Amino acid sequence: MSNIVFIATSLDGYIADKNNNIDWLHDMPNPEGSDMGYSVFMSRIDALVMGRNTYEKVMSFDCDWPYHKPVFVLSNTLTTVAPEVADKVFIVNGELEQVVNELNQKGFNELYIDGGATIQNFLKQDMIDELNITTIPTLLGGGISLFGELAAPLKFKHISSQQHLGCLVTNSFIRVRED
After folding, report:
1. CA–CA distance, 163 with 179 (Å, rounded to integer)
2. Which residues contact 167 (CB under 8 A, 6 or more apart)?
3. Three-state DSSP class for residue 11
């Protein structure tokens, strides 16, 4: 069972700009339409866990719902999802450990953790097993940071790097836990 992050950041560590926009993610020419490992990653996971803000951001895109796996939205205030995704998106709430345990019991063992606050909260509780971070060579100078404060350092081991489009780099890390 793993909780896995797959996300892009600016060179200075932001996942959205100062206006909560992510348009800058698409500034790199991609003539062949490379998904930069996304489809391989998605084939590994059973479901997504994202926060309300990420869910609302995805719903604002002018496209069909992009996920073919169940999506669990963490929210203490959201009570319903849009009708067009009601069979694909489910609201969950409670303590993260309890939510993950319930999802694991339902057979969702490889979870894609997405969204800034959600990732930060999983990290605060030392519940991230793998980080896959694609760095976009853009400095935003502010915005929504991928990482927040932690009570203690978390150690990760670098397992691979992959370059995409001649200018992006995906680094993969696994959590090192001392017994």
Report:
1. 34
2. 28, 137
3. coil
Report residue 172 as tokens.
């993969």
Given the DSSP bridges, would you call strands 2-10 and 110-114 parallel, antiparallel or unpaired? Answer: parallel
Nearest of 108, 105, 124 to residue 116 by alpha carbon: 124
- b/e per residue 26-46 (b: at least 16 CB within 10 A): eebeeeeeeebeeeebbeebb
| Residue 44, H or E segment | helix 38-44
What is the model's pTM?
A: 0.94
Output the average pLDDT for the chain.
Answer: 94
Confidence of residue 13 (pLDDT cuts 50, 70, 90): very high
